[in-house]
């Protein structure tokens, strides 16, 4: 106890009685580090093996977000020329060697996906610990705690793959500065401004290439850090020069890497990354059913609390700590590392303010890194073995018994987790194997529906390319996911579909996911083509299978004009005849004087409510989000017999002086076929359909 009190009061550490004691304490510390690392590895292996042995990834995003482009690479297609990878070309290339090593199938893709994220997560903690000269034990322990707490609270930790590999994509921005610190200590060239900033520029170029959003966030944060906090020089003029050089190297490096992987087709790839995606992602992804952040409630949403407020609190705490040191010119390197980690977390989280995202796991992991560094700072000792508390345990010969008990408890916890996951696999398995994995009941339903069509060898396309295309070997030219058909690629997707003429087209089962209605509101031109040229053939838990018609279905005739009242409610005459799906054409205008302001200018959402048949069983469909750059937009509405169409424009998250106005609303009938309407709105009555029902 005396030794603990001495440590708390920061007195001189207890002096070991002999050299053999010091050696034993060091061995105990290494044992702690080893056991913590082993526990982390075993826990990850358990979770990964469960997710690989039972394939239950959702048909949107998830496994096929990686597997589809890996198949394209293996088939000889070129990134940026033949296809784009939404999250950054480098992320795809990092997985490709493991994909080939494990056999080049769905199982290989899943193994590469499940292995890369935990490795990057664990390496991130150990690299930061090495830069701060703390122990591997503390890094391993912090990694375990962050993973268990983050996943347990469903915040996310970045250790597991998730739906978009966010942990891997955000690793490089977190480790750039720790790597630079280590290089500066070991090599003289990096102690010179030219060498140090050249490394930062190259590392940032790779970060942008691996993950566009996270890399650009890191570029902004590190540029500010270089400008404000002199790591190499105290002159403002010199700092501005080195900041410019770092940004220039990062930009040129990113362009060079993109040019190499795209075989010189740089313009197409950059247009998607820097133009099409930023232009459309906010109105497209940032509306219902995704969460629409609104003041003041959005300020206390758990994503904002974890992603914004907590990092700001930690930044404030760090500023308070260094206030006594004087000006920023004397800020210690460890504080710069804290600012870098929290700054990247904050900037990456900014899209949360304008669109739905899941970046709070990045903030939580980076906060875990900062807390780990603070814990070491409180110890004020280069090795955790020198802590008097451990010295006291070792002196009383309690270290080995405690390690034994801790190991037994850890093994018991792992056994409980393994048993739980095994029972869960048995409950969720659909009894069908594919590429060495047991398929969940949903995917087993997909394969059973496909087998009932007896269509092996047929050409297949879908809104979200998934298992059926992989089984059938189909590689439809164009984006793997229709949600990536943004900007100029929107019209191109439909043209590719017309030229490809697939025998079958798959859409999401509206009873399975509300994102089917979301897709219809954003890509109604594709669905109109589908209605005229295809008919619903069968349905599975995940998908509706549409079979190509032998003849094009004639379109309905007649146009309905909506009229508005003084309150801005637009109403149509009653629908005459059977239930009908209509195309709604809205002419409108928007004015946003704040559109040039980053983040704030992207806040407004222009939503048109509609009383359409909905998968929720209500008479209120998901509001249609209008792109602010357009002046006319089309989306569907389903009206029952005798029902009036009702529409109203609402602007969410308004900014000063914003204006939006609807000029006209017209409805054109598309189809009154009950099976088609069911496939678009509620497929529950299609379960007994057979292929000969398709006309």
Helix proportion range: 40-55%
Give the termini separation. Answer: 84 Å
Query: Structural class, from secondary structure content?
Result: alpha+beta
The quaternary organization reads as single chain
Biggest sheet character: 5 strands, antiparallel
Beta content comes to 5-15%
CA-based shape: globular
Helix segment tally: 23
Q: Count of DSSP E strands?
A: 16
Rg calculated over all Cα atoms: 29 Å
> Which ranges are low-confidence, i.e. pLDDT below 50, for 5 or more consecutive residues?
1-21, 381-385, 614-618, 687-695
Instruction: Please state the average pLDDT score.
Output: 79
User: Strands across the major sheet, in which order?
Assistant: 9-10-15-12-13
Describe the structure.
With about 700 residues, the protein is of the alpha+beta class. It has 23 helices and 16 strands. It has helices at about 1-10, 20-55, 65-75, 90-100, 105-130, 135-150, 165-170, 170-185, 195-210, 210-230, 235-260, 265-285, 300-320, 335-350, 360-380, 390-395, 400-430, 440-455, 465-470, 490-500, 515-520, 525-535, 675-680, and strands at about 55, 430-435, 435-440, 460, 505-510, 535-540, 545-550, 560, 565, 570, 580-590, 605-610, 625, 630-640, 645-650, 660-670. The chain has a five-stranded antiparallel beta sheet. The chain has a four-stranded mixed beta sheet with strand order 4-5-7-6. It has a four-stranded antiparallel beta sheet with strand order 8-16-11-14. It is globular. The chain starts with a helix and ends in a 14-residue tail after the last helix. Mean pLDDT is about 80; it is low at about 1-20, about 380-385, about 615-620 and about 685-695.
């Amino acid at each position: 106890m005396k030794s603990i009190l001495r440590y708390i009061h920061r007195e001189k550490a207890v002096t070991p009685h002999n050299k053999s004691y010091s050696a034993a304490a060091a061995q105990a510390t290494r044992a702690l580090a080893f056991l913590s690392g082993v526990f982390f590895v075993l826990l990850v292996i358990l979770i990964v093996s469960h997710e690989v042995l039972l394939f239950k990834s959702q048909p949107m995003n998830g496994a096929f977000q990686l597997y589809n482009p890996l198949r394209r690479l293996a088939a000889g297609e070129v990134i940026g020329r033949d296809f784009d990878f939404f999250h950054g070309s480098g992320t795809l290339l990092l997985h490709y060697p493991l994909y080939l090593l494990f056999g080049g199938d769905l199982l290989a893709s899943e193994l590469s996906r499940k292995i890369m994220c935990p490795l990057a997560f664990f390496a991130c903690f150990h690299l930061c610990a090495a830069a701060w000269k703390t122990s591997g034990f503390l890094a391993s322990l912090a990694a375990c705690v962050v993973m268990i707490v983050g996943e347990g609270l469903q915040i996310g930790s970045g250790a597991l793959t998730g739906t978009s590999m966010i942990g891997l994509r955000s690793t490089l921005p977190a480790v750039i500065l720790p790597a630079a610190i280590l290089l500066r200590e070991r090599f003289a060239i990096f102690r010179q401004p030219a060498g140090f900033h050249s490394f930062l520029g190259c590392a940032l170029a790779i970060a942008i290439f691996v993950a566009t959003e996270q890399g650009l966030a890191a570029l902004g944060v590190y540029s500010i850090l270089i400008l404000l906090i002199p790591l190499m020089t105290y002159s403002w003029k010199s700092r501005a020069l080195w900041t410019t050089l770092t940004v220039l190297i990062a930009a040129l490096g990113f362009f060079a890497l993109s040019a190499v992987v795209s075989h010189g087709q740089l313009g197409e790839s950059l247009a998607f990354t820097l133009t099409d995606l930023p232009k459309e992602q906010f109105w497209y992804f940032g509306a219902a059913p995704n969460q629409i952040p609104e003041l003041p409630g959005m300020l206390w949403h758990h994503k904002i609390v974890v992603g914004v407020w907590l990092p700001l609190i930690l930044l404030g705490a760090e500023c308070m700590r260094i206030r006594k040191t004087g000006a920023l010119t004397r800020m210690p390197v460890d504080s710069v590392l804290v600012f870098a980690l929290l700054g990247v977390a904050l900037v990456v989280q900014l899209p949360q303010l304008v669109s739905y995202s899941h970046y709070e796991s990045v903030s939580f992991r980076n906060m875990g890194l900062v807390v780990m560094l603070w814990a070491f700072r409180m110890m004020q000792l280069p090795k955790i073995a020198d802590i008097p508390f451990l010295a006291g345990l070792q002196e009383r010969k309690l270290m080995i018994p405690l390690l034994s008990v801790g190991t037994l408890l850890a093994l018991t916890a792992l056994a409980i987790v393994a048993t739980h996951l095994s029972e869960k696999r048995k409950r969720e398995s659909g009894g069908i194997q594919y590429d060495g994995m047991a398929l969940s009941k949903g995917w087993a339903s997909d394969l059973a529906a496909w087998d009932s069509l007896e269509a092996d060898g047929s050409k297949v396309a879908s809104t979200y390319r998934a298992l059926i295309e992989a089984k059938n070997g189909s590689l439809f030219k164009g984006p793997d996911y229709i949600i990536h058909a943004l900007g100029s690629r929107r019209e191109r997707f439909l043209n590719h579909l017309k030229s490809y003429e697939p025998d079958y087209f798959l859409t999401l089962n509206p009873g399975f996911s509300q994102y089917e209605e979301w897709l219809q509101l954003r890509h109604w031109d594709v669905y109109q083509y589908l209605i005229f040229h295809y008919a619903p053939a069968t349905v599975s838990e995940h998908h509706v299978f549409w079979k190509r018609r032998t003849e094009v279905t004639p379109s309905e005739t007649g146009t309905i004009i909506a009229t508005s009242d003084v309150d801005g409610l637009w109403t149509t005459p009653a629908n005459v005849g059977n239930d009908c799906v209509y195309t709604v054409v809205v002419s409108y205008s928007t004015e946003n004087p704040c559109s040039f302001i980053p983040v704030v200018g992207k806040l407004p959402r222009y939503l048109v409510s509609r009383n359409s048949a909905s998968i929720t069983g209500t008479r209120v469909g998901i509001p249609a989000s209008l792109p602010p750059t357009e002046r006319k937009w089309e989306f569907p509405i389903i009206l029952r017999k005798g029902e009036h169409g009702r529409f109203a424009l609402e602007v969410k998250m308004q900014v000063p002086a914003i204006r939006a106005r609807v000029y006209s609303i017209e409805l054109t009938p598309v189809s009154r076929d009950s099976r088609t309407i069911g496939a678009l709105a509620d497929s529950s009555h299609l379960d007994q359909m057979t292929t000969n029902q398709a006309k």
